[in-house]
Amino acid sequence: MKAYLLCFHSFFLSFEIFSHLFNYSKLYFTGLDIGTTSTKAVVFDISGRVIAQKSINYQMIHSHPDWSEQNPDEIYNAVKECLDYLGKRSLIQYVSFSSAMHSIMAVDETGTPLTNLILWADNRAIQIANELKTSEIGQEIYHRTGTPIHPFSFLCKILWLKEHEPSIFKQTHQFIGIKEYVWFKLFGHYEIDYSLASATGMMNISNLEWDTMALALVGISANKFPTIVSPTFSRTMANKRFFMGAADGPLANLGTGAISPNKMALTIGTSGAVRVCSTTPYTDSQMRTFNYLLTDNQHIIGGATNNGAVILQWLKEQLLQTDESIEKLIENAEKVPMGADRLLFLPYLLGERAPIWNAEARGIFFGLSINHSQAHLTRAVLEGLILNIYSVGKILMEQNPITEICASGGFAKSSFWLQLVADIFQKKVVVSENVESSAWGAVILALQGLELEPKNAIQNTAKVFLPDESKATFYTELHQKFERIYLKMKDEF
């Protein structure tokens, strides 16, 4: 019977694909990207051309100092609204998921949330993380799981719940992230892909199972977590196929083509990250970088920063309190000399992940004078964000001969910001026509699940930014100063 069912499934899949091959223009693939500030559904054809998109925004909740949460049902409703919008236009055939990483919530046996969604930016577990990351067991768990010890991880957040919310800890049937919650609401199964499982700090990257040492430390069994499945795993609902997909960071590598060792993906949205792809796992002796899986033989190695474009939004709304658009602020910043007339910005408003892994770090404007204007502040923020992420990229470039940076995310719409990347990294920066790289990466996984290849894939390099070699020495020295200031100040946070 099992063999018969496998044969039938194979026949059905072949028929499903064959029935569409006569008219590729009628194939629609949706990358459903569940982000920190919005959910976006992007519909592509098989060549990667965007057919339609729908986006729904939502807010964070900061009910206590260091807490960053969201209402999981608000996000689920945003997903449903996006799907309903596309469904009414007959644009849904295949859907594949992308999701922000490091969000966790507890649910009971009925799937009802016992907590809000606790986000990557939540730092309530600072003390637990600080104690654990200097211990031998903490360091061993890092090398087993590839996830640095930090308040963002499931490991530290669950330990916090166990200590501070013991009744919730005892009631919890499953510890899950937002994509797993949405998947359960749609299909009634708790399942998680390799990348999001490895990002929890609870999965062993060698055997792709929940790590026994991490489980023992937390004091729970593996059945408290979803079943780990391939990113090409799928389920069917109303004659539509939904693929598991993966985390937004690894998918940005796939979507931008940064899969070969000499290419590095750089993404800046609300937060930011730089990542390279490797066929073998790699952990850092100083625990500065992560190692997440995309597929069973593709490891995404890199580091993420808490402080991305959200800092620019803070500058506009909270510090400058201006009605000028961010685009106008950037335009004005272009007129300021590089280095912002000796004004330097350390962007640690939300604490920091890579490479310093210091949740207690805070932002600094260093060198303020009476002559500095809004434009100087803006330029310093833009440079500071790239100098910070260069600290991570420099570590990766020591291990890999990087020749090209594939940029994506909202910041990739700014030519000035992209040129800053080229000048600070001293590498060629390439931007694709469609900057929705995580959504397209999710669709590529769906195509792999269907045993299809993108047909006549668009050669969609939109812009190339070459480094100005005359600026190399200046930015090298500025970056060294950036790191020196942090080292001098870190004990004062």
TrEMBL record:
Pfam families linked to this entry: FGGY_C, FGGY_N
Domain Carbohydrate kinase FGGY N-terminal span(s) in chain numbering: 28-230
Keyword tags: Kinase, Transferase
Carbohydrate kinase FGGY C-terminal domain span: 264-447
GO MF term set: kinase activity
Family under the similarity heading: Belongs to the FGGY kinase family.
Name by which UniProt lists this protein: Carbohydrate kinase, FGGY
Protein source organism: Emticicia oligotrophica (strain DSM 17448 / CIP 109782 / MTCC 6937 / GPTSA100-15)
